[in-house]
Prior knowledge:
By secondary structure, the protein is of the alpha/beta class. It has helices at residues 8-18, 44-53, 90-104, 121-133, 146-155, 165-173, 197-206, and strands at residues 2-3, 23-25, 41-43, 70-75, 85-89, 111-114, 136-139, 160-163, 187-190, 211-213, 245-248. It contains 7 helices and 11 strands. The strands form 4 sheets. Strands 1-2-3 form a 3-stranded parallel β-sheet. Helix 3 packs across helix 4.
Amino acid sequence: MIAEDNKTSVVQEALVQSGAPCVIHWIERTRSPMLPGGHPQWTWSDAFESGAANSNTSPAAERRLLDNDLAALIYTSGSTGEPKGVMTTHANMVSASQSVIQYLENTERDVVLNCLPLSFGYGLYQAIMAVMFGGTLVLERSFIFLDEILRRIGSERVTGFPIAPTIAAMMLNLRNLEKYDLSSIRYLTNAAAALPVEHIARLRKALPHVAIYPHVRADRMQTRLLSSAGRNRSAAGFGGHRHAQLRGLHR
């Protein structure tokens, strides 16, 4: 189970419901001594090291999976009630990823900067999609250090920037957004909640060269585009699987 800075009670409930054998924390300080059943608690570095150490496992020992097998339990934010795990199959996740990849016209030349939590559905999909289209994924621990994130967009020549309404509001509240080199951005996508119309208009004015997708729902395989040319469209489709590059996790 992937956990961010969640309350211990929320993590405990998710562990009981999901039956997950261990917890992967974003950073060391989020480990909790209060989890039930003595569940192992790893950081991302622990998980990557463990994966590398076991990369030579015999394929014959691996369990064969079907497309309708459970792939993930993605917990909602709980904004409309108690958080609940959404059962997602491999077919669900592959189909949703392929749809968004085709819609965004992703290629191996794309560099995506993700500062959304990997425990958040659309944050997790950034990693999955990058592997599928073979691009580069730059991971940031959070969007709190917005100045550093905007600078990294320029230094990494980021082409795709997935955000949430809070990030859009922070960007628009900057007095000197124009000082950052955002010329490489090809598209900006938003998830979690719809962007206010005013924010969309201001983003289009500040970033006229960027295609803006105000509300992407990967779990529902649909999205809408508002570019500087004012186009609107929706689509679904399929993509391929390639080797992705991973960079980031600095703070």
